[in-house]
Design a protein that fits this description.
The chain is an alpha/beta fold. The chain has 2 domains: about 190 residues, Response regulator (Rossmann fold), CATH 3.40.50; about 140 residues, Rossmann fold (3-Layer(aba) Sandwich), CATH 3.40.50.2300. The protein contains 14 helices and 13 strands. Helix 1 packs across helix 2, helix 4 packs across helix 5 and helix 8 runs parallel beside helix 10. It is elongated.
């Protein structure tokens, strides 16, 4: 379990445009940059320093980016805050301990990054506002009454993937694929949701598929090795366990000539072939803006709909080094504006 304490004090002058830019890239519009600056100014002028607990499930590129975006939104808002950064290292017991510590410390707001972190925070308090991010389906995970009307003390931003576009990408890059392996961790409910969507798309395309599951990171090597010779391609969603070990997954799959279509850009950077990816920095930034509204404008999480990003706001990315290793021609998606994220 990792811990970092960060104290921040920043000012809104000249920064409203950054807030407006982030809002413009998301599917649901919020307040204008000018309105945000006015609200932030009043919050800063009040002399209040807000105590914010940040609980991140584990360390990998997507969750790190969401964390960074959240902090940037707080800084841009001009509020004074003390952020207690803690990382649970993918341990649910640690999540619960951290969440209870935030409650005992009298946090004004908790940021929960990933579903297990949000579940732990919600289990620890029904009073302190919670903003979640990097969570696929808040309602299906039991975090809110509905995504349109959360109804409790938790709201946030969803990383629901454009799964249909990702499966279409798999078909484009691996047109001869007749059997796809679906790799995910059974401990993550949001992965199950994405896998079910992927299965629907593969069924519609007439492509056979099989689930390959792990219950912890200790099983990843053996499970990925068991896929070799059985599948023509791999699809893996925004699964935190797989994402944290994506370098290992890619090293085995790529060496065996099996391309992997991933849920997000960090997994492609780690050796996956390609993705239509959520921008996690922007996702975290919007979560930060929601937090500022709660802290400075008395916005009620119960009445703040879960926000999502649409497919046309996502990033088409690929790894040229992986493509070269696999002998896959990516020129078609390059012409579509795909970005090479290889090192």
């Amino acid at each position: 379990m990792e811990h970092t304490n960060i104290s921040r004090r920043s000012f809104a002058a000249g920064l409203a445009g950054a807030g407006a830019l982030a809002l413009g890239t998301l599917g649901i519009a919020g307040c204008s940059g000018e309105d945000n600056a006015d609200a932030a100014g009043s919050g800063a002028a009040s002399g209040t320093t807000y105590k914010i607990g940040i609980l991140q499930l584990t360390q990998h590129a997507a969750l790190d980016a969401a964390n960074e975006g959240f902090i940037a939104a707080l800084d841009d808002s001009g509020i004074s805050y003390d952020a207690d950064q803690q990382n649970a290292s993918n341990d649910q017991n640690a999540c619960q301990t951290i969440a209870q510590t935030f409650v005992n410390d009298g946090s004004d707001l908790i940021l929960a990054i990933a579903t297990p972190a949000a579940q732990a925070a919600l289990g620890a308090t029904s009073d302190i506002p919670i903003v979640g991010t990097a969570i696929t389906d808040f309602a299906a995970s039991g975090l809110v009454d509905s995504n349109d009307a959360p109804g409790g003390n938790l709201t946030g931003t969803s990383d629901m993937n454009p799964v249909a576009d990702q499966i279409a990408l798999l078909q484009q890059l691996v047109p001869d694929a007749s059997n796809v392996g679906l790799l995910f961790c059974t401990a993550e409910s949001n992965s199950e949701i994405q896998i079910a969507l992927a299965e629907e798309e593969l069924d519609a395309a007439g492509i056979a598929h099989e689930r390959y599951t792990v219950s912890s990171s200790n099983e990843i090597q053996s499970v990925v090795e068991s896929m070799v010779g059985q599948v023509d391609a791999v699809y893996t969603p925004t699964d935190n366990t797989i994402a944290a070990a994506m370098t290992q997954v890619a090293s085995i799959a790529n060496a065996a000539g099996v391309p992997t279509i991933c849920g997000e850009v960090g997994m492609v950077e780690a050796g996956g072939l390609a993705s239509v990816s959520i921008n996690y920095y922007e996702l975290g930034y919007r979560a930060g803006e929601m937090a500022v509204q709660i802290l400075t404008e008395d916005a009620d999480p119960a009445e703040m709909p879960i926000e999502t990003m649409s497919a046309d706001e996502c990033d088409l990315v690929y790894n040229q080094e992986t493509a070269d290793e696999l002998g896959i021609d990516v020129s078609a998606i390059v012409e579509q504006g795909a970005e090479d994220v290889s090192a």
